Every structure is written in C-alpha cells, then in structure tokens.
Amino acid sequence: IALCHLFFNVFGILLWYPVPFMRLPIRMANVLGERTAKYRWFAVLYLLLCFLLLPSLVLGLSLAGWRVMAGVGGPFLGVTIFIAAVNMMQAHSPRYLPTKLQTWDFLPKWMHSLKPLDRLITKATVCCSFSCEAGQNEEQGDEEPISPHTVSVRMQDEFASSQRKEQLTHSNPVLDCLEEIRPGVAVFKLKGLERCNSTPL
C-alpha cells in the first residue's frame, strides 16, 4: 500500500508538473482556495460533491449498465468540455466568441455565480443561530423576569446585527472573484493574497 501511494504521487508529478502548461492542479487549487476564502461553506460542499455524491452517481450508473452510463455520461462530458473551452476563450481571446458568449450574463444568476446560494446559506445559518439564541433566552427566562418590551428590543437588535453581518458578507470588494464580475469593473485585491488563498478575511 505504501508503494502504491509512492508511485501514485511520483507518476502524478511526472504527468502534471514538468510542462508548465500542464500544471492544472496548481491552478485548480488556486481557484478552490479563492472560493473557500470567499465562501466558507464551499469547502464542505466540495467535499460532499466530489467524495460522496459524484462517486455514488458514477457507481450507480456503472451498475445500471454501459448504455445508461454512456447515455448520461456522454452529454455531461460534452457540456463540461464546452463550458471549459468557452471559459478559456473568455479569459484569453473573447473577441473570437459570439457576442452572447463573451460573458455568462445571459444565464440566470445561480448558473454562473455562487452568490445566490451564499445568500440562502447565510440566511439559513443566521436564522438557525437566531432561533438557538432565542431558545437560550427562554431557558434563562425562569431565572429573571423580562418584560415584553425588553424582549422586542433585544430581538430587533439581534435582527439588525444579523442583517449587518449578512450585508458585510456580500459587500467586501477584496473578495470579488474576477470571473464573477462584468468586464471593465474595477476589482480590489490585496497584494500577496494570491499566495494565501485560504486566509479567512
């Protein structure tokens, strides 16, 4: 087993590292680091998707037979190659693309940005923390009586603070990724941030 791990790593280095153009894992790690720095839940989603859901899907398709696997995997592979090619051309030579394909803005927001999903997850976690704090306040209510006016003021303060936190989550220009904004929009990035992609801000 140790030799298997050793040869797996050696062949991986020989396959990807010698030619600079082939160093895709490093670029992919940079992109994943930027996404995780911007969206803290992305690492959990990535682990669940790549190590649980996708392998389970491939296993199920392989058990269903090669026809089913080819019928589902063929179109999926074609769409993936098309998206990768368009992304590469958008980054390097967008003038060769049709006007509509020069950006993904014609698609719904949730298909080319993680911000709608981030808003949903942020609201869900804020609501969960809000309900947990309310439950703790109810448990402490037996010890000291609290007037309804105090409860309403406290709930308003907590709601305002949660709204401020949610607003700060989306209004940090430092964390905007280049591929999620329109061309020509100024992007502020911290100098040296590309070397520490997983630094939480």
UniProtKB/TrEMBL annotation:
InterPro entries: Na/Pi_transpt (IPR003841)
Superkingdom of the source species: Eukaryota
Recorded topology in the membrane: Multi-pass membrane protein
Record keywords, A-Z: Cell membrane, Disulfide bond, Glycoprotein, Ion transport, Membrane, Phosphoprotein, Sodium, Sodium transport, Symport, Transmembrane, Transmembrane helix, Transport
Record localization: Apical cell membrane
Function field: Involved in actively transporting phosphate into cells via Na(+) cotransport in the renal brush border membrane. The cotransport has a Na(+):Pi stoichiometry of 3:1 and is electrogenic.
Annotated protein name in UniProt: Sodium-dependent phosphate transport protein 2A
